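Any chance you could type out some protein's one-letter sequence along with its backbone structure tokens so I can compare the two?
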Amino acid sequence: MARPRKRRIVCKLPNIKVYGPLDGNIHDEPIILSVEEYEVIRLIDLEGLEQEQCAERMGVARSTVQRMYTEAKQKVADSLVNGKILRIEGGDYILCEEDNNRCISCNRGRHRHRRGKMG
């Protein structure tokens, strides 16, 4: 029997969930970027975290973050270079807990997570 998959902690869902070419030249199926892959890109590229810090925030191993980050970058590159629609949807995640728009554990706005309450 396979080991159950560990749900990843995500701070918040993206406001915009579909990206793509504006010229109307859409022939391919959309590329699906999971919510967790979006969160990895947000934490590493936007917030400037190292993979270990990102893994701690998301409650997974660094190797898991490395794999998700590699796959996410490939999907984003495919969308940009080949003019494909990119949709952010699905995955196996939980949202962090908030109190007055702040994640409870770190008190630094909406970008931190409570550890230990995963389900």
